[in-house]
Design brief:
heterodimer, A: mainly alpha, 89% helix, elongated, B: mainly alpha, 13 helices, globular
Chain lengths: 85, 307
C-alpha cells in the first residue's frame, strides 16, 4: 500500500517536472520570438499608440501564461498518446 | 541585455531569478510579491515608474499561472472571486484617488510610509499570535497525527470564534459559497475586497498581504482556498493596474516577459508546495513577508532612497 503510494507520488512528481521543463522551454522561446518579431514594433507602438500598446502588453503577458500552458498540456497529451495524466 | 522601451541594460538571468523567487512566493502565499520585485528592478537602475508598472505586468502573468494551478488543485473559489471583483476595483480606484489627494496636499510619501509600516507590522504580529496558538492547540489535540491532503486542507484558526460571529450576522443578501463551505453576508465580502482594493490602490501592488489574511480571518475561507482565490483577485487588480500604468508609459513589456519566464515556473512549484503544508503553517510562514515590506519602507523613510 505504502509502496504503491510512493510509486504514484514519484510518477506524479516526474510528470510535473517534465511539464515544467517543457513549459520553461516554451516560455523562453516565446520571449525570444516576441523580441525578434515584435520588438521593434512594440517600441514603435509605445511611442505612437500608447493605448494599443497597453492592450498588446496585457495580451502578450496573458499569452505567455495561458496559451503556452495550453500548448504544454496538448503536447504532453500527444506524447502520452492521448492519455491525460 | 538592452531593453529599448525603458532604455535600460539589465542582465536577463537576474530578471529570471527575481521572477522565479517572486513566483515561488506568489504561488505559495497568494501574494503579488511587488515588495521584492519592485526594489529588485530599482536595484538594476530601472526608473521607479517603470519598476512599478513592469512589476505589475509580470504579476498578472504569474498570478494567472498560479491561479490556474490552484484551480486544478481545487483551491480557487471562483464564485467568491467574482463577487470580490466589485469591491476590489472600487477600492483600488478610491486608493488611487486618495494618493492623488495626498499628492496635492504635498505629504504623500510620509503618510503612505507610516500607514504601510503600521499595516505590515499589525498583520505580522497578529498572524504570529494566531498561527502559533492554532498550532499549539492542534498539537495538544493530536489533530496533526493523520496525514493526507484532506486533513491538511481542513483548516483551523484560533480566531475562529470571531469569524463565526461574523458569519452569523444575517445581513441580506446572504451568499452561499459551497467550495469554501461558508455562508456569509454579501456586504462583508464586498467590504473585505474593498479594503484589499483600497490598499492595492493606496500602497501599490496586488495587496495580497492584506487580502489573504482577511479571507481567512474575516470570511473564514480555508487557507489553501484563500491563497488560490487571492491570486484570482490579484489578476484583476494587477491587470487593471498594468493597463493604467501602460497608458502612462510605465510598462516595459519585454522586461516583464523575461521576468515571467522565471515567475511562471516558480509559481507552479509554489502552488504545488501548498499541498504539503497545513493552513496554520502556511500562515506562520507568511509572517516574514509583511515584515520585509515594512523593513523596505523604514529604510526608504530613514535613508531617503527609494528602493
Amino acid at each position: 500500500m505504502v509502496t504503491t503510494r510512493k510509486g504514484e507520488g514519484r510518477r506524479t512528481l516526474r510528470a510535473f517536472v517534465v511539464e515544467l521543463v517543457l513549459y520553461g522551454l516554451l516560455v523562453t522561446a516565446y520571449f525570444f520570438g516576441v523580441l525578434l518579431f515584435l520588438g521593434p514594433r512594440l517600441v514603435q507602438l509605445e511611442t505612437q499608440h500608447i493605448r494599443l500598446y497597453a492592450v498588446v502588453a496585457i495580451l502578450l503577458i496573458l499569452g505567455q501564461a495561458v496559451l503556452l500552458e495550453a500548448i504544454t498540456t496538448g503536447l504532453l497529451r500527444l506524447l502520452r498518446g492521448g492519455r491525460s495524466e | 541585455m538592452y531593453f529599448p522601451i525603458s532604455h535600460s541594460y539589465i542582465n536577463p538571468i537576474y530578471l529570471v531569478v527575481t521572477g522565479f523567487v517572486v513566483g515561488l512566493l506568489g504561488g505559495f502565499f497568494g501574494v503579488g510579491g511587488s515588495f521584492i520585485a519592485g526594489p529588485a528592478l530599482r536595484a538594476m537602475g530601472l526608473d521607479w515608474n517603470f519598476a512599478v508598472g513592469t512589476d505589475l505586468a509580470h504579476i498578472v502573468g504569474k498570478s494567472v499561472v498560479a491561479a490556474k494551478r490552484h484551480r486544478a488543485l481545487g483551491n480557487v473559489d471562483l464564485r467568491l472571486g467574482l463577487i470580490m471583483t466589485i469591491g476590489t476595483i472600487g477600492g483600488a480606484e478610491l486608493g488611487a484617488q486618495l494618493i492623488q489627494a495626498l499628492k496635492r496636499a504635498g505629504n504623500v510619501n510620509f503618510i503612505v510610509s507610516v500607514v504601510s509600516i503600521a499595516v505590515y507590522l499589525s498583520i505580522s504580529t497578529f498572524m504570529i499570535w494566531e498561527s502559533w496558538r492554532t498550532l499549539a492547540k492542534s498539537n495538544r489535540s493530536k489533530l496533526r497525527k493523520r496525514s493526507g491532503t484532506a486533513t491538511i486542507k481542513a483548516d483551523q484558526s484560533a480566531f475562529m470564534h470571531v469569524t463565526k460571529a461574523l458569519q452569523r450576522l444575517r445581513i441580506w443578501p446572504m451568499i452561499r459559497l459551497p467550495t469554501s463551505g461558508v455562508t456569509i453576508s454579501l456586504w462583508i465580502i464586498v467590504l473585505v475586497s474593498f479594503i484589499g482594493g483600497l490598499f492595492s490602490g493606496f500602497l501599490g501592488g496586488g495587496a495580497g498581504y492584506i487580502r489573504m489574511p482577511s479571507l481567512v480571518y474575516v470570511l473564514g475561507i480555508p487557507t489553501h482556498l484563500a491563497v488560490g482565490t487571492d491570486l484570482f483577485e490579484i489578476i484583476i487588480s494587477a491587470g487593471y493596474g498594468t493597463f493604467t500604468h501602460a497608458i502612462k508609459g510605465n510598462v516595459d513589456i519585454l522586461i516583464a516577459l523575461v521576468m515571467h519566464t522565471g515567475a511562471a515556473i516558480g509559481a507552479q512549484i509554489g502552488a504545488i508546495a501548498t499541498q504539503y503544508f497545513a493552513g496554520p503553517k502556511i500562515r506562520l510562514a507568511f509572517v516574514p513577508l509583511p515584515l520585509i515590506g515594512a523593513a523596505i519602507v523604514i529604510y526608504t523613510l530613514l535613508s531617503g532612497h527609494k528602493l
